Amino acid sequence: MQRRVFLASGVVAGLFGRHALGDEVVRANGFWMPEEAEPHQRSFMQWPVNRGVHPDRVFLEMLQQSIADIANAIADFEPVVMLMEARFAPQARRMLSDAVEIWDIPTDDLWCRDSGPVFLRNAAGDLAVAQLNFNGWGGKQTHAHDGEIAARVADRLGLPLIESGLVGEAGGLESDGDGTLIAHESSWVIDNRNPGLSREEIEARLLSVLGARKMIWAPGVVGADITDYHIDSLARFSEPGKVVIQMPEAPRRGDPWSRAAFETYDILAAATDAEGRALEMVVIPEPWDTRVTSDDFVASYVNYYVCNGAVIAAQFGDAETDAEAEATLARLYPGREIVMLDVDPVGEVGGGIHCATQQMPAV
Description:
363 residues, alpha/beta, three-stranded mixed beta sheet
């Protein structure tokens, strides 16, 4: 399960110019990060345009069509906003449903889970945006526009931007909306994001800014992909107390992803959440007979997106595991339509549907 390729930006950003921490704002206003399956106001996505990142024009158009297919599928169930510089809108509109709204906020790439706004909510119905200070996964990719997206969306919506004091990505953690976070250390406790900070310091800041009470860590994999192994391609909360995880049949010699998958499984299966519940583990098998067979292709069923009334997930051409994944998601999310899409170009650049989306909670 290799991830997207590296594209050095020439600068590895650290914790420079951090604002005052927002911990006291979160505590005073009771903000927390809701679980994805809770009702949404809308979904956000980003239009990939940067030719330095995607130099092949034909492939870029294929990738844009896949992003449009995801947006159009979500738009059947809830409002969707696609972020892009205005000059790209005429071309994008030919691929996008009329139901998809376009906002003039410049983008580089498509990874809205990582560079988009991370929304918090409180019991009074107020919203805020947590600032995780996206830096191109540790300076591995250009992000001049993507690094500004969270702040620009917060500004357009008139929402407070709460500083985390960290550099990271929302794809690198999972929230159950009930006090528990899970993450791989490899994408947080690392000098290309958070130099000089211990795991305990990073944990304290994440729990504080996201309004959670317990963090469950697994080691992950450092340096083998651009994200340093985001948790959202391996394990997800489907509800508090329940984790869905994609597993190979056995660890494979020389494959760090399969070893890490079993390691993460064992840690989560032995853990309890913030409410003291043992985590129920639901396994989806890894596909093997996929349409794309390159080593860096990401074929993750658990990198799905939950929207109002539906689950939008990928299928990879393996009839047996595609069907099993669809059936498992239907059991996990009763009453929601399961929409399976061929979005192979997104897998070819190292991610999935969840990586390309970001939810705005309803209030």
